[in-house]
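Please decode residue identities from the backbone states below.
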């Protein structure tokens, strides 16, 4: 099976054997894939019934190469077998040299050999828990391990279960804006590389650029090498993800040098073998973040996002904006108690500055399943280059306005920012004279563009799609037709409009012969 991403008319499409599709994903917790038993007990019995077609699963360097040069792929074998049994595609996440700005997944023989595999050093000359991206030996070791993994997958009969791979996870260095190790300092004092001069023609030295730019160059250079190794064996899209820059925070508060919006140009220039730089979105400014990551000529992947009830509806906005992958993090939590989850994730929540509600899945499961069911039904339209998709989402505003040739629409947002309610979000498109809206918690008002005309609903239905065939479940009229709206449970509605003159028209009557003789 061939997996590829193409760009047609500034719109990206993910193709499986030349057929466009969307990756309806869920990412398991960091340690969920550490044993086959853990996956068998906690993941596989659950994920097959909630609408996923793609599972994001970590692969740990320390697990596959605990002894230098000796590889154990038993766990990878188990993941491939179970994915095939459950008819789910895999996105393997390579937890190698860097994960969340740290180097906690490297094998013990690297952790303990700080002479050969030196670490990032802060301004106080303290070594940090992050292997330096200037350490060539460490990068070469990671490349060998990743290459061996990709070779194993490429030669496996179930290789087609792996459709995408993520290289590292939220790279960068924490607790310092840049690396002050001896090697880093040597490079910091050297001539600017040609690629950086092309981006910043006015600069003559690293000192004239930000520390974050310097680290972005180093990390992107390392990941480009890794991507090239992976591509020797696997002809699939490769990406890396980003712990986002947050307003009011400095580089080092978040991983300095990762593919954040302020250094995306460096990553795009210096790591061309990566198909995408993907934002992990846990913040409230969802629309702005998507816009930031669509400024560059790359497809939109969202490999991590929230799974709380209020946030679930963001998938409508994301896919409406052209996302190819959407994946709430810790997908298995949808079946757990809230208290257990909050206890497990306190440190993570604190680090990101998020409210506890971000990891509260209370009541989410049926809504999550419904959201993905609808996106699956709409996939033939979302991936049709001839159809214009529009999407909307409530943030600080309360309405969305749209106008076509004949009608104006005002979409009023109905959600109240309560944790037990989905936030207003949706998408819509037009097929001939019919409008299709999907999403939740909005009301729809319309009028004619021509001020001499009134607009009214001609037909209003609820239903679902199979392929591109519409099936009507209910035809709405009376009180249920005055104002089209969708409540808290997502659904698809279909309606058409018509116009009539506001003022009565004069009509010349043709009387019948017998009427004239009365």
């Amino acid at each position: 099976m061939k997996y590829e991403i193409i760009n047609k008319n500034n719109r990206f499409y993910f193709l499986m054997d030349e057929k466009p599709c969307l990756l309806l994903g869920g990412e398991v917790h960091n340690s969920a894939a550490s044993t086959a038993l853990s996956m068998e007990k906690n993941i596989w019995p659950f994920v097959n019934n909630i609408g996923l077609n793609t599972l994001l699963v970590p692969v740990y360097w320390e697990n596959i190469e605990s002894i230098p040069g000796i590889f154990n792929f038993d766990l990878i074998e188990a993941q491939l077998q179970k994915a095939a049994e459950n008819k789910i595609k895999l996105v393997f996440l390579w937890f190698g040299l860097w994960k969340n700005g740290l180097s906690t997944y490297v094998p013990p023989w690297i952790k303990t050999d700080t002479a050969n595999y030196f670490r990032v050093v802060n301004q106080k000359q303290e070594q940090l828990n992050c292997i330096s991206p200037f350490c060539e030996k460490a990068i070469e070791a990671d490349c060998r391990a990743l290459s061996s993994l990709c070779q194993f997958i490429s030669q496996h009969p179930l290789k087609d279960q792996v459709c995408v791979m993520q290289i590292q996870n939220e790279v960068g260095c924490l607790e310092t804006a840049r690396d002050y190790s001896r090697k880093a300092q040597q490079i910091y004092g050297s001539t600017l590389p040609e690629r950086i001069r092309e981006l910043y023609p006015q600069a003559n030295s690293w000192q004239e650029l930000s520390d974050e730019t310097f680290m972005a160059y180093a990390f992107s250079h390392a990941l480009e090498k890794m991507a090239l190794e992976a591509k020797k064996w696997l002809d699939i899209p490769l990406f890396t993800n980003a712990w986002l820059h947050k307003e009011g925070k400095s580089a080092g508060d978040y991983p300095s040098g990762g593919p954040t919006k302020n250094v995306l140009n460096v990553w795009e220039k210096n790591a061309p073998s990566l198909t995408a730089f993907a934002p992990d979105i846990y913040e409230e400014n969802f629309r702005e973040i998507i816009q930031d990551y669509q400024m560059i000529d790359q497809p939109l992947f969202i490999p991590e996002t929230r799974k709380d009830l209020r946030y679930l509806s963001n998938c409508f906005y994301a896919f409406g904006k052209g996302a190819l992958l959407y994946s709430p993090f810790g997908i298995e939590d949808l079946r757990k108690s809230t208290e257990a989850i909050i206890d497990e994730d306190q440190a993570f929540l604190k680090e990101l500055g998020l409210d506890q509600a971000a990891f509260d899945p209370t009541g989410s499961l049926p809504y999550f399943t419904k959201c993905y069911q609808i996106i699956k039904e709409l996939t033939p339209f979302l991936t049709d280059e001839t159809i214009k998709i529009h999407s909307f989402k409530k943030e600080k505003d309360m309405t969305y306005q749209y106008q076509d040739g004949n009608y104006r629409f005002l979409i009023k947002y109905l959600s109240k920012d309560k944790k037990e309610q989905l936030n207003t979000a949706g998408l819509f498109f037009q097929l001939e004279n019919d409008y299709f809206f999907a999403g939740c918690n909005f009301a729809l008002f319309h009028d004619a563009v021509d001020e001499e005309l009134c607009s009214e609903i001609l037909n209003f239905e609820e239903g679902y799609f199979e392929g591109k065939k519409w099936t009507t479940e209910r035809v709405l009229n009376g009180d249920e037709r005055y104002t089209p709206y969708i409540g808290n449970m997502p659904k698809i509605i279909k309606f058409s409009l018509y116009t009539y003159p506001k003022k009565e028209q004069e009509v010349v009557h043709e009387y019948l012969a017998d009427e004239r003789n009365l």
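Observation: The first helix runs from residue 36 to 42.
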